[in-house]
């Protein structure tokens, strides 16, 4: 049983002094969801009439039906949600971060808090006694494609009052996920986070999260990017959806006119970096993926770690590519290896273009 009132301390690499308590590299806000991960045959998706390769919102009844039909499959649990995955990977790299999301006092909620704390992330929440903790069923097929069925449940009740303003002010960056624009109160919490961050010279980073999110909230995303965002994260599909462009290069060029620093992943090719209008493609690390779950979240974690440690944008993208290359060789969105202290080894020889 987790101690809901306990505050965990930041984790730091050996040899570094402890910074003042409650001082963070990144302050994350997102949907707190327990990932339920299963490997399945593609025919399961066809039988269930599930669209492959995207995130679909489902109600509790539909989620229950899917889980019942998966009862014979081996499943793994992880504390998740897009922004939460990013915070965990930042901590793995050696950064300090805290995360705000909403769970309840049910079994999944208790698991979520303990799992986040075990991963080295301060998880801030005022748990509700009513309702259910959100879940995301992650179905991975042999081609490493992941399909997500998400029941947001209590996570949609996250609101402005849940944001710890003092911790936000003491952070270098905030990181907000686009999935939060699917709910009214979560949207308000995100807007408050961005507004307070800008007022206190805290950098604002924002991920577009999913092409469906972009299509639902395109005009709002464009406005937010212009008004508040210092760093954009997206993949090529999201960039194309936002820009209406036909090529990745055109998409990143469009977004670069809205925001001075843009990171757009391009699969095995690596990631585009647009800094003050200058666009470069930072190469990735060749691997044979077994599960792409959390790849974009891991990339964002690597980039944010780099930016908060004073790396250049391109060097940060290179580290982001490495973290993402490690995560696609794992089952689920959690690394089984520690990356803290490996930056010099991995980035030796890399030069900005």
UniProtKB/TrEMBL annotation:
Q: Which domain of life is it from?
A: Bacteria
- Tell me which residues make up the Carbohydrate kinase PfkB domain: 76-336
Q: Name one GO molecular function term.
A: kinase activity
Pfam families, per this entry?
PfkB
Keywords, comma-separated and alphabetical: Kinase, Transferase
Which Gene3D superfamilies is this protein grouped with?
3.30.1110.10, 3.40.1190.20
Which InterPro entries does the UniProt entry name for this protein? Carb_kinase_PfkB-like, Carboh/pur_kinase_PfkB_CS, PfkB_dom, Ribokinase-like
Q: What does the record give as EC number?
A: 2.7.1.-
Protein family (similarity comment): Belongs to the carbohydrate kinase PfkB family.
Task: Tell me the protein's name.
Answer: Putative carbohydrate kinase, PfkB family
Question: What is the scientific name of the source organism?
Answer: Leptospira biflexa serovar Patoc (strain Patoc 1 / ATCC 23582 / Paris)
Q: What is the lineage of its organism?
A: Bacteria, Pseudomonadati, Spirochaetota, Spirochaetia, Leptospirales
């Amino acid at each position: 049983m987790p101690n809901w009132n306990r505050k965990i301390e930041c984790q730091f690499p050996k040899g570094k002094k402890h910074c003042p308590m409650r001082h963070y590299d990144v302050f994350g806000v997102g949907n707190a969801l327990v990932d339920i991960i299963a490997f399945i045959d593609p025919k399961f998706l066809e039988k269930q009439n599930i669209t492959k390769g995207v995130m679909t919102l489902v109600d509790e009844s539909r989620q229950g039906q899917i889980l019942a039909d998966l009862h014979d499959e081996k499943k793994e649990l992880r504390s998740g949600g897009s922004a939460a995955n990013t915070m965990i990977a930042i901590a793995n790299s050696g950064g300090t971060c805290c995360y705000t999301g909403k769970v309840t006092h049910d079994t999944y909620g208790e698991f979520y808090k303990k799992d986040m704390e075990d991963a080295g992330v301060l998880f801030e929440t005022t748990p509700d006694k009513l309702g259910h903790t959100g879940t995301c069923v992650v179905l991975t097929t042999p081609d490493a494609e992941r399909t997500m069925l998400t029941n947001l449940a209590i996570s949609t009740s996250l609101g402005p009052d849940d944001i710890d303003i003092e911790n936000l002010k003491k952070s270098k960056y905030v990181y907000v996920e686009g999935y939060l624009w699917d709910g009214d109160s979560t949207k308000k919490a995100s807007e408050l986070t961005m507004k307070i961050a800008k007022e206190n010279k805290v950098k604002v980073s924002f991920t577009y999260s999913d092409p469906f999110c972009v299509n639902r909230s395109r005009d709002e995303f464009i406005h937010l990017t212009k008004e508040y965002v210092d760093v954009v994260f997206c993949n090529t599909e999201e960039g194309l959806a936002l820009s209406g462009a036909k090529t990745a290069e055109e998409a990143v060029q469009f977004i670069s006119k809205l925001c001075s620093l843009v990171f757009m992943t391009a699969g095995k090719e690596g990631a585009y970096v647009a800094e003050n209008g200058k666009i470069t493609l930072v190469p990735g690390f060749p691997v044979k993926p077994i599960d792409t779950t959390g790849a974009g979240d891991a990339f964002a974690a690597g980039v944010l770690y780099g930016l908060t440690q004073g790396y250049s944008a391109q060097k940060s993208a290179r580290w982001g590519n490495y973290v993402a290359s490690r995560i696609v060789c794992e089952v689920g969105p959690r690394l089984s290896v520690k990356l803290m202290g490996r930056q010099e080894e991995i980035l030796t020889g890399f030069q900005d273009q």
